Amino acid sequence: MKKYSIITFSILILAYFSSCSEDFLEIVDSDEYSADALYQDEDDMENALNGLYLYLPGGDITSTNITPYFWTDDAVHRNINDGSGTIRESDYNWTTTSNVLDDFYKYTAIANINYFLEKLPDATYTDEDTRSQHEAEARFIRAYIYEEMLFAYGDVVLLTSTISTDEYPSRDDREEVFDFIISELEEIQDDLQLSYTSDDYGRITQGAVLALKARTYLKALHWYSDTSTLYAAAEEACAEIIAGGQYSLVDGIDGFESLFSNSGDGNSEAILSSIYIETYRTHGLARQLAQKGSWIGSSATFANNQSRPGYSSDFIEEVQTINGLFPADDSEYDPADPWTNRDPRLAVSVVLPGDLLPSKTDSDEDYEYQPHPSIGTTTDDINKTSAPTGYGFRKYIDYDLDALDQGDVDIELIRYAEVLLMYAEALAGQGRDGEALTYLDMVRDRVGMPKYADIGLPTVTRGTTGNTMIDAILLERRYEFAGEGQQRWWDIWRYQLGNQVITQVYGIPTSTTEPGDLVGEKYKASNSDTQYARVWDDKYYLLPISQTVLDANPNITQNEGW
């Protein structure tokens, strides 16, 4: 999108929408608002549309894009200074009043998009193709939001127009909402462009539509009755992207690392991004992720004292060696030197014990990150309010920022690597393992990992689907998308792996000589016998509807078990 076009007009509209939308479905009562002065012409509508883009997931650790990662076997979050005392629900002490869990219930956004679409036909446009494109972009954002709600809650109220505040709609059947999302994406695809000039980089493309369609099909695997249809449809959508040649993997591990420092002009892999907009849309991920002893920026006005997320030992110990083996299966693995000769994505994704970082007091000085309470300084001691496991997040940290809460990179929402892995999964789901292997190995080969065609598939024992090829694909997704967003949450939920992988979360070994000890005692996350001692319950496959919603609308029913 144009980087400077989200101006006061858009802010005014969003501020109005937010103030008028706090009831049971967070809907807009259009009778209370006169749009005569605002929704007049093409420029007005583009500015309003740009405001709607803010409903796509952003660059914040509390966003719906990242929080669900803390509900998986890969990571947890100790806390977040938002006053909720929720520890991002990483402990699984979930209730119907857990405000983190209702973040997907986005009827403010739905109402605002519907309102925009209702005003669109009467606005003056010099080019009807532009009107059609604007409509398609708004409908895409609405479909994106509904797909998130569908996965999180199951049956949800399907609204395609604004309603009055005295209406109390019931939840619509999940399959009806699913069909709506797919039909919307199919209808809008041809009204969008394949790509845009640099001034409009970030607008929704045909590739984004196809990728979201493939996601929607594959994320329905755990409830949709005809899985063969889902795999075939996902294959078709991904095949169209691949055949179009619009996207490609960036080269090598350096290219992979650059994906998380890219700003404004895109890259060959980005299909949908949350775009950095100078002076308006920055993000605080670097601050929220950076370790406490590390640099916070020359102009920072904050203390780097915020609690942080951490990767689990389960994830760290299952990241392969450069030989394509789990560390426990590789005779060359050295627990005294555990970070050497590992999948290169480990060092890009994780702040590891012993890593040298720019010092908090002087960016020209090295600071050794050391979470073990018996080694080095105590700044990032695992027992204190630091990364609860001792394995920190690294993607999107930029120590060259003036202040680490002024992030200036694009947040990747869908990238080409995901399309390749979705394509591989869709093929494997239809028993076409030989074809699937080609696309799985493309993602591995990009970072210099050995191809499974040469070494054979891994034997996955934690979280197996019963299909060895799909197991390998899900494992690759763990490596590729670590710390980026919801993908591991999707994988556990849609293949019903919760009772296999969700357990007590552990962090670094207690050994002071072997930071990669695989068999000895480990610190429990947060060093507590109760916190993060997670016990799986199948009711978690759907989040609870917030009690405030139930109280306000008698026609909304709760999900089973809650």
Number of helices: 18
Q: What is the number of beta strands? A: 10
Kindly name the structural category: mainly alpha
Q: Class of the largest domain in CATH?
A: Mainly Alpha
Named CATH topology of the largest domain: Serine Threonine Protein Phosphatase 5, Tetratricopeptide repeat
CATH architecture of the largest domain: Alpha Horseshoe
Radius of gyration: 23 Å
**Beginning-to-end CA distance, first to last residue:** 41 Å
Largest sheet: 2 strands, antiparallel
Basic shape: globular
- Percent strand equals 5-15%
Mean pLDDT over the residues: 90
Number of domains: 2
Q: Could you estimate the helical fraction of the residues in percent?
A: 25-40%
Describe the strand arrangement of the main beta sheet, using strand numbers.
Answer: 1-3
Output the helix-strand order.
HHEHHHHHHEHEHHEEEEEHHHHHHEEH
Oligomerization status of the protein chains = single chain
